[in-house]
Amino acid sequence: MRLLTLNIRQGGGTRIGRLLEWLAPIELDIAVLTEFRRGNSGDQMARGLGSQGLRHLASPESPRGANSVLIASRFPLQERMIETSPSDSHRLVSVEVEGVELAGVYFAQKNEKKPLYQALDTASDELLKRIGISKAHSAPLTMSGTG
Asked: What is the 3-state secondary structure (H, E, C) of 121-132?
C-alpha cells in the first residue's frame, strides 16, 4: 500500500494544480493532507485526487477556510469516531481502510495545539493503540519548540 502524508500549506491555494501534478506519478493508494481547507481550493483538490483514483474521502466538518485534514483513498473507507473538544474537532479524522485504522491529525501552531495534545494524552490507551499512537505510561505527550 502506498501512503503519503503532506502538509499542503494554507489549503494549497494557487499551488493545487502543481501539487496534483507532483502527486500523480506516485500512484498513491492513500493521501493524508494537512492544512486542507474547505472551499474552492479544497473542492479542486478533491476533484483532482478523485481523477487520480483517490475517490473515497474523509474530512471532519470544519469552517470554510480553517486548516483541517483530509484522507483520500483508492479503497472504500469507513470513518471512525474519535471524540475531541469542539474547538479541535476539525483537526482530527480517523478511518478504517483495508483493515487498517488510520488517523490524520492537523496540529495548529504554538499554544493553539495544546488542547489537542492534552486530549490525546488523556485518551484511553485502547483508543491510542487503535489509531497507532503509543505513549509511555510514565511520560505524557510533550510539546517541544514553539512552532
From this structure: HHCCHHHHHHCC
